[in-house]
């Protein structure tokens, strides 16, 4: 199998197709023309994951077509990945070729980098990690000036930190983020900054409070918290909650309360269906919510959560799946109308897109 084609000359055409698709999906709701936020044509992806495939006595970086685990596509570089990942790839390959301690039963490599220059490499093994591996990994981390995480069944060894540190700029202010190994982070840093700036501008300065569902590591929480009186944010993933708490503390965001609740559980709490010990010390009745911000998974909001958002004057919605976004808007369209719309090209050269809408009460 040949290497996939990478052709930046096709970028404008594929972006136009995405815009047309989004316009078509939102046409039933009389949505305005979307703002379009482009991606860099190459070196935009801050994360990359490769399987390793042994051939002619050498392990190679490899990927596979969906549904085919036996026909590798080899890579020496990866044009869509960050320049930092491309610089690290040959150095890491040379290191495992020179070290049995690093290469023995190594089957997967993951890179995580940031716009601010931090990097973490995860090495995955089909064997226990021993003292020889740790010594070799420590030497490699020092040589490459990266953090390294070694993973084997039931064990994880960390050389340096198990997270990278990012700095993103929104409306002239810099926000610092810890992004943990193994947790979700936005893969396209440049477009992520554009998404944050759009959400910040669309929310506008408010004198009331914000409810945020699916807050993740606090990616949107930090800039949006500067626009409102206070924020109640929810997230169910324990690793994301821990990262968000650290990010709130690092940025001095003292007007945010974060609770580990699912959107469904928060709905029950707000409807006073049952109490939650995780809400101890938080007076829900003290909030004057004017807006809700949601960034749900690909499945979108479930019907009950969608009904919860209906009670707010303003719904700011970031979506990674325009089909489920349209379905959620259909449920809300009798009480809310789309007044702002945007397309964020997080994933160039694929059919995937990120979009955003502001819905305001009719």
Can you describe this structure?
GO terms for molecular function: tRNA (uracil(54)-C5)-methyltransferase activity, S-adenosyl methionine-dependent. Dual-specificity methyltransferase that catalyzes the formation of 5-methyluridine at position 54 (m5U54) in all tRNAs, and that of position 341 (m5U341) in tmRNA (transfer-mRNA). Its EC number is 2.1.1.35. This protein has 362 residues and is α/β, with parallel strands linked by helices. It folds into 2 domains: 8-41 and 188-361, Vaccinia Virus protein VP39 (Rossmann fold); 47-164, OB fold (Dihydrolipoamide Acetyltransferase, E2P) (Beta Barrel). The protein contains 10 helices and 17 strands. The chain has helices spanning 11-26, 83-98, 100-103, 131-144, 189-203, 221-225, 238-250, 263-270, 303-310, 322-332; strands spanning 35-37, 47-55, 58-63, 73-75, 106-113, 119-125, 147-152, 155-159, 163-170, 173-180, 209-213, 231-234, 256-259, 289-294, 314-319, 336-344, 354-361. It has an 8-stranded mixed sheet, with helices on both faces. The chain has a 7-stranded mixed sheet with strand order 4-3-2-5-6-7-8, with helices on one face. Strand 12, helix 7 (238-250) and strand 13 form a beta-alpha-beta unit. The chain is globular, with a radius of gyration of 22 Å.
